[in-house]
Amino acid sequence: MPAHPLNAGHQARTARRSSHGGRQHRLDGLDGLRTIAVFLVILFHVRAPRMSAGFIGVDMFFVLSGYLITSGLVRELRRSNSIDLARFWSRRIRRLMPAAILVILVVLVWTVSSAPSFRRPSLAADAFWTSVYAANWHFISSASYFAHDGITSPLLHMWSLAIEEQFYVGWPLLLMVLWLLTRSARRLRRFLIVAAAAGSILIVGSATLLGWYHAQGGVERAYMGTDSKIFEPLLGAVVAIVLAWEPARRWAMRWGTWLAIVGLATLVPLFALSDGPSPLYFRGGALVFSVAVAIAIAGLASRPGGWPARWLGVAPMAYLGRISYGLYLWHWPFDRALVVAVRSGGPL
């Protein structure tokens, strides 16, 4: 599907925006998708009517993160024939850690100054495990993400950031190993095939674990375990790898608008079916939903001038997507603070 002449100017502006400075390769359509994701999560956390499936916004974040991180890593491989892991990890730390530490410090100040004495040990433990990006494993055994018991930790939402950081550590390492092992005249092509195959195998295994842990009665273990949720960022990663292959990229550019339409349209009924979460979510629903997100990402990234990308990339949507990390970090502690105020000093 060739570009319409009226979209040529928009595509050129998008290309220029995505090739300068710190906003390199930024796509407004993906920022708009991130806006939808963060507000789904916020509405779920504040228990808005008809939003009990809003937790699925986290799944969207995971797939987006996998795509964006892997796209950058593949570009680096093509450009420099290697991945500077130290530089990659230091950039992740500089970008994500300061804001997260500020949230942790604010919670600790509240813990020391105002928290009931019986809450202080658990909140201190929450802060420690959050600071080392292992919050998901800590909260699996100490909290419930879906049952609001009135004393939910103001750091509970940090479990998802822990999974992302663990992905940022392990996945680039695996890609670098695969890159070193795939030496041939057609190195990039061979690497892309091997990396896509490895990612696909891990996806199947992880999605299977999600259903298995849930069947054993471990809802929190299934939902917050790294091994049972890593298939979501891996799906985004596989999309990035596939689109790095020239024939696939040309095909996606041709049909990108339809890919975006099909992916986004599929999310609506899947959102309704995930309410609860329903058992269907754990028995393949999360995988199908994440595949739909991955298809939408492929379309939006391949056709930034298509109308779905332009609609999602309007200035307010794109702006909110760019600050979605801050919105995600602060909305839950703020919600917990409101609960305290409404209860006139009741437990946080």
Structural overview:
The chain has 348 residues and is mainly α. It has one domain. It has helices spanning 8-17, 28-45, 57-80, 85-113, 120-131, 135-142, 159-181, 187-215, 219-224, 226-229, 231-243, 246-273, 279-302, 307-312, 315-322, 324-342. α7 (159-181) runs antiparallel to α8. The longest helix is centred in the first third of the chain and has 29 residues, at 85-113. It is globular.
Core attributes:
mainly alpha, 0% strand, 348 residues, disordered N terminus
Question: Any low-confidence stretches, pLDDT <50, length ≥5?
Answer: 1-24
Q: What integer value in Å does the Rg equal?
A: 21 Å
Mean pLDDT: 87
Give a quick account of the main beta sheet: strands, pairing sense, barrel closure. Answer: none
Taken in chain order, the helices and strands follow as HHHHHHHHHHHHHHHH
In what range is the share of β-strand residues? Answer: under 5%
Number of domains: 1
Overall structural class, as computed from helix and strand content, comes to mainly alpha
**Separation of termini?**
54 Å
Shape: globular
Task: Please count the helical segments.
Answer: 16
Q: Count the E strands.
A: 0
Brief overview, please?
The protein is an all-alpha fold. It is built from 16 helices and no strands.
